[in-house]
Specification:
- The protein has eleven helices and six strands.
- With 216 residues, the chain is an alpha/beta fold.
- Strands 2-1-3-4-5-6 form a six-stranded parallel beta sheet, with helices on both faces.
- The termini are far apart.
Length: 216
């Protein structure tokens, strides 16, 4: 489902998606309230969500869509200009599975849809660092009790995930297989009650387990 208050933008995204044999746009919405209504009726796998819209904004709509049974909740991919949207961080907290810039190339958009549909997280690399830098200074002190369920290796994996490393890169760094890394990531998500790597990254920075490059 494509959600944006500009009809031309919605039509553009829909055309790109519908041109793919494995993807299909089931609905379009121009505001958050309509998006929530349609999503509950049609149960789309992925929602492309704008943030700034009249009436109910994308942040509120994202929270409502993801605050339900995990089996029924759609994956929300936020589309943003970021320079104007200071709510991306809150959108990720609300349950979004990632974000892309609105000027992303068609292949990047399609890749993002497929990634979040598969259960993974999609973060635009050029924006992730700015997002982390913007909010790292407000992170609360680490809470050891929250991380107690994790083994030392799981905590190490969480730190590497927060640094933006892929499973393959983590496997190389730790000298293990990618399958082992996947098992560790799943264990971290399960023990901490997190949906995906996006939420794991946010939590790691909030707890002080990871910091932007160049900080101590």
């Amino acid at each position: 489902m494509v959600v944006d208050d500009q009809a031309v933008v919605r039509a553009g995204f829909a055309a790109i998606v519908d041109a793919e044999p494995d993807l299909h746009v089931v609905a379009e919405a121009g505001d958050g309230a309509r998006a929530v209504q349609l999503a509950r009726e049609l149960s789309p796998d992925v929602v492309l969500m704008d943030i700034r819209m009249p009436g109910m904004d994308g942040l509120t709509a994202t929270r409502l869509l993801t605050d339900g049974p995990q089996a029924r909740a759609p994956r929300v991919l936020v589309l943003t200009t970021f320079d104007q949207d200071a709510y991306v961080h809150d959108a990720l907290r609300a349950g979004a599975s990632g974000f892309l810039l609105k000027d992303a190339m068609p292949e990047e958009l399609l890749a993002g849809i497929r990634v979040v549909a598969s259960g993974e997280a999609m973060l635009a690399p050029t924006v992730t660092r700015r997002l982390i830098d913007a909010f790292a200074d407000t992170a609360p002190a680490p809470d050891p009790a929250l991380l107690e369920p994790l083994t030392p290796r799981e905590r190490e994996v969480l730190t590497l995930v927060a640094a933006g490393h892929t499973n393959a890169e983590i496997a190389d760094a730790l000298g293990v297989t990618t399958g082992t890394v996947k098992s560790h990531v799943n264990a971290v998500l399960g023990k901490l009650g997190l949906r995906d790597r996006v939420q794991a990254t946010i939590l790691a920075y909030d707890l002080g387990l990871a910091r932007p490059r160049g900080t101590r």
